[in-house]
Specification:
Layout lengths: L1 H29 L2 E5 L2 E3 L2 E12 L2 E5 L4 E6 L6 E2 L4 E6 L2 H41 L10 H39 L5 H39 L6 H56 L2 E3 L4 E6 L6 E2 L4 E7 L3 E7 L11 E5 L4 E11 L4 E7 L9 E9 L4 E5 L4 E3 L2 E12 L2 E10 L1 E5 L3 E6 L7 E5 L8 E4 L9
Parallel strand pairs: 1-24
Antiparallel strand pairs: 1-23, 2-17, 3-12, 3-16, 4-11, 5-7, 5-10, 6-9, 7-8, 9-11, 12-15, 13-14, 13-16, 14-15, 17-22, 18-19, 19-20, 20-24, 21-22
Helix pairs in contact: 2-5, 3-4, 4-5
Amino acid sequence: MNRGVKITGVILFVMFILLIFFSQTIYNYNTPVVIAVTPKNGKLNKTETASGLADWSKTQEVYAKLGGVIEEIYAEEGDRLETGGRLAKVSYDADTVTQQLTVLSIDREKALVSMASSEAGIQRLNQQIQELKKEVYTADDVSDYSLQQAQAKIVQGQSALTEAEAGLEAKRDLFTQAQALYDVGGAALQELDTAQLAVDAAQRAIDTARHNLEGYELDYQNQQSLLSKSGEANAKTLSDKESARQKQIDEWLYQISSAERDLASKRMDIQKYDEQKANYEKQLQDYFDNTYIYAPETGELLSLTLHAGQTVNKGQSLAAMAVGGSYTITCQISLDNNFVAVGDECKLSNTDHTLVSAVSKITPTDKGKTIEIKTDSAEIAAGETFEITFAKESAKSAALIPNGAINKDSDGYYVYMIKKRKGILGDEYYADKVTIYVGDSDDQNTILTQGMMFFEPMVLLSDKPFANGDTIKVKNEGDFFAS
């Protein structure tokens, strides 16, 4: 009996030992194994990479200053040109301008001759007025002198009419020339109008001369009638003579006024001729000064839209040059990247080059931020692509938590703190959910602003899922807990 009890006791003890062994094994198998970590003091190290394309920083267009025809081309796309280097030669229609200058010079000389004639006529009329005013008439001083004077006036009137008719013919010739030039585009409408005004003035001069001649002929008839009258009519004849003299003076004054108006018109014509001459001469000088198209600055010829025989217009784009010797590398970074700032240095690299340059411009867009980086490096070329690395350390130190330890739900951010408690098999560790508040972050860490202490361990990694309050096993227990 005692032996059986002993055997039973042994069996129960062995079973108890086995139960404890298997329970511990099952417990250890099902318990999540975690790696713990604590917050640390440090700085964020932010990094972002992007792909960028190099292009010329400054390009300059070359425009045609005047319209003409391209005669020769001296450069090709890709050529490097110094300031003032020739791109092309241009020819202009200088013959037409020279012909217009010749016509203008002839018209001006004709106007000067006509002015001289008008001035001489005015002087002659003034002299005749003075001589007529000097004549003294008496009641019995009626002779054939007045008849001779009237006849002389008729001769003068006929001469003036002949001269006016010749002037009209000359003005019509000038108008015909102006009309021909205008029809082929060699003269402006203003020049044609000026020629028409000259024709009209010449026609008025003829009308005036005819009017004067009719007056002279009528006076001559009156003088003949006076001579045939008897002595009783001397008193009336004297009055008529005085009236006729005043009428003649008035007529000559009218002719002087008309001639002076014509002189003023011709002076305006001379002024216009001189202005047009200056314009034509300036146009010829511009043609000479712009015979060649030059490179405005030292640089590379990017495009040349010219060929020999091509007609170009004033203001037309002829070429584009890369000038200044600098390049701009452009890339895109994420919109939420707030650590890259103007002036920051970044690394540019490809299979051929590695260089460091600074951010010169940042432009936010709907899809991201456009970064421009300028460099004067002579090693790179337009069209090259670069991998651009932006790296920056935060200015101040802060409490940092590894990003892998942070979780998030509808209530915000949290971590699982590792706490110790009494369990069935002794002391054990469990997960305690703790709400935290975070700040900025980089690829590895996030700033902790509130929610836990530096020395408190938390779960970084786990081999199994777990929930708040679950028992866990800490793989690196010795780093945080005393055994």
